[in-house]
Design goal:
By secondary structure, the protein is of the alpha/beta class. The chain folds into three domains: 2-82, Arc Repressor Mutant, subunit A, CATH 1.10.10.10; 88-205 and 375-393, Nucleotidyltransferase, domain 5; 211-369, Nucleotidyltransferase, domain 5 (2-Layer Sandwich). 42% of the residues lie in helices and 17% in strands. The strands form three sheets. A five-stranded mixed β-sheet has the order 6-5-4-7-8. β9 (218-222) and β10 (228-233) form a beta hairpin. α8 runs antiparallel to α10, α9 (293-301) packs across α10 (305-328) and α10 (305-328) crosses α12 (348-358). The chain is elongated and about 80 Å long. The model is unreliable at 1-5 and 66-71 (pLDDT under 50).
């Protein structure tokens, strides 16, 4: 009993410090009175907690200022704010052909970014890790940050990842991402690395700063080269037993689909098929190097009949992909994300019309405004979640 009683003040102080930090993260400069109102703490406790957090480097005290334009009696109120440069988080998008790393401050503002290609899909794990590490160091160098200032890293990969951060390697492609990244970066840099599926991070990112902001039941579909999805149900990201929730391998069995190729891939393939014939189309101007998805969308916008037919096929394909998701998961919203999202908006109306034929529970549709940054935005959010949950156990290396 005495042991429990002795631990109680320490626990209460920890809870109080967590509450103050949470408030600081969602606010700008605040006074002690505002801290009291937000947390329910007494003035003495609020001041004590703020001074403790300031000493540890998490928050800073601003210079006192009199109320603008008039006389203010007594001492001006003390004002505090989050030290957003107390440390950094890294958000990584590790694809099959390149790695992208974003450096973010503790408010989630992207400060620096770097991308580096891999020499090939089948390169050794050590080489893949070396490229990722080099990309991270370049991103940190671009903002003048040291490796020691990194509080957490989240890396998104194109393979299922379970709740423990283990990669599901039941097929060869997924196994290419099982390179021991967490242990390698811990040993190299001392970093805490969280591993997550890229589509899951896309869902977190879009719900944080995209079309799904504030939506608790949403599926975000990465739709550029291959389809993959992240599922948020009642505000919770779903993983499944082995991390396979949201995987689209079942599309092989869906009538009118038959594979997991995404919008960008299909646009290129179908444009090449059209060019192999005698069709008159403005896409022939790109025939030498092969038209890309953006060429198809641009030609369709200009009224090109061949390109318009490809967009019609894409809308039909997307409706057939979304329909099983809408039937089984029944989300409020389905968001199309990835690099192709900027163009895919023109498909939404046709997709919505076709969906009515395939499901009795059609969701709202949207495209993500985050473009090809959607995975790194989600990775930053995931890393920040870790920092916010574990702030009081983390030791800052930067001065306040």
């Amino acid at each position: 009993m005495s042991e429990m009683t002795a631990a109680t003040p320490q626990l209460l102080r920890r809870v109080s410090a967590g509450a103050v930090l949470d408030f600081m993260r969602s606010s700008q400069a605040v006074t002690v009175t505002e801290v009291m109102q937000a947390t329910g703490l007494t003035r003495a406790t609020a001041i004590s907690v703020c001074e403790d957090l300031m000493e540890r480097g998490w928050i800073t005290e601003l210079e006192n200022q009199r109320a603008f334009g008039g006389y203010q009696k007594g001492r001006p109120a003390r004002r505090f704010e989050l030290n957003e440069r107390a440390g950094y988080v890294l958000g990584m998008d590790v694809g099959i052909s390149k790695a992208t790393v974003v450096v973010s401050d503790l408010r989630g503002k992207a400060l620096g970014r770097s991308s580096q290609p891999f020499a090939g899909a089948e390169i050794p794990a050590e080489e893949r890790i070396a490229v990722i590490d080099r990309t991270a160091m370049m991103a940190l160098h671009s903002v003048g940050a040291s490796p020691e200032s990194v509080l957490a890293v989240c890396a998104g990969i194109a393979a299922p990842v379970d709740r423990n951060g283990d990669v599901l390697v039941t097929q060869h492609f997924w196994g290419l991402f099982d390179v021991g990244l967490k242990a390698a970066l811990r040993d190299l840099r001392g970093w805490t690395v969280l591993l997550e599926n890229d589509a899951n991070l896309a869902a977190l990112g879009d719900r944080w700063r995209g079309a799904a902001a504030g939506v608790d039941d949403v599926v975000v579909i990465l739709a550029s080269e291959r389809f993959g999805s992240g599922v948020i149900d009642d505000g919770r990201l779903l993983h499944g037993v082995g991390g396979g929730a949201g995987e689209f391998a079942f599309l092989d069995m869906v009538e009118g689909v038959g594979d997991t190729y995404g919008i960008a891939t299909l646009a290129r393939v179908w444009a090449a098929e059209a060019l192999a014939g005698k069709a008159k189309t403005s896409l022939r101007a790109h025939a030498a190097e092969g038209p890309e998805a953006e060429h198809v969308f641009a030609a369709a916008a200009a009224g090109d009949a061949v390109a318009l037919k490809i967009l019609d096929r894409l809308a039909d394909r997307m409706a057939r992909v979304i329909a099983p998701v809408a039937t089984v998961i029944n989300p409020e919203l389905v968001v199309i994300g990835g690099a192709v999202a900027n163009s895919a908006g023109v498909l939404l109306e046709d997709i919505a019309q076709r969906l009515k034929k395939f499901t009795v529970t059609p969701p709202r549709l949207a495209v993500s405004p985050l473009g090809d940054s959607i995975v790194t935005v989600g990775a930053v959010r995931c890393a920040l979640d870790y920092v916010e949950k574990n702030s009081l156990d983390l030791e800052l290396s930067l001065p306040a």
